[in-house]
Design a protein that fits this description.
Radius of gyration: 21 Å
Number of helices: 9
Mean pLDDT: 95
Oligomer: single chain
């Protein structure tokens, strides 16, 4: 259990180290048994003092999940919605932080890597595995199909091999 002053201090320090989602901070406050009214005041103060911003959090989350985890837009948006980030910040962050060419190149690179693990399978089974893999990473189906065709051609594969 923390007093409101202790909770504010702890959350300010946490926010100083990296962007945080409001929902995660509210969960910490709940676990620390801070009353809902005090929690609201603490969150408001963090926002007023610019420690907490959903817009900044969305931008940082998009950058990190795309660059370091290789997630696609669908998976990133879903994760941000689960953290109760407003859709306007999600859409803006996805548009601003992910370059279309880099997005395409990332999916090609991921599919090339996965191709090695499905080598030896029947061509249709290998193609299906690559599509499932790309979809599980959160990439849009039309891009998955285009990139699959590029990977297939780049490796001189045919559907009858």
């Amino acid at each position: 259990m923390k007093t409101p002053a202790q909770a504010l201090s702890a959350l300010a320090a946490l926010c100083s180290r990296g962007e945080q989602a409001e929902s995660d901070l509210r969960e910490k406050l709940r676990k620390w048994e801070v009353s809902p009214a005090d929690a609201d005041r603490i969150i408001q103060r963090l926002k007023e003092e610019n420690f907490l911003s959903d817009e900044r959090y969305a931008r940082a989350f998009v950058r990190d999940k795309f660059r370091f985890n290789g997630w696609g837009r669908i998976k990133i948006a879903h994760a941000l919605r689960q953290k109760h980030i407003d859709s306007q910040w999600i859409e803006q962050a996805l548009a601003d932080e992910i370059d279309d060419a880099a997005y395409h190149d990332t999916l090609i690179r991921l599919m090339q890597g996965k191709l090695r693990s499905v080598a030896g399978r029947e061509p249709q089974a290998a193609r299906a595995a690559l599509l499932r893999f790309a979809a599980s990473r959160g990439f849009e189906s039309d891009l998955c199909y285009r990139c699959l065709d590029e990977v297939w051609r780049a490796n001189d594969l045919t559907d009858d091999q």
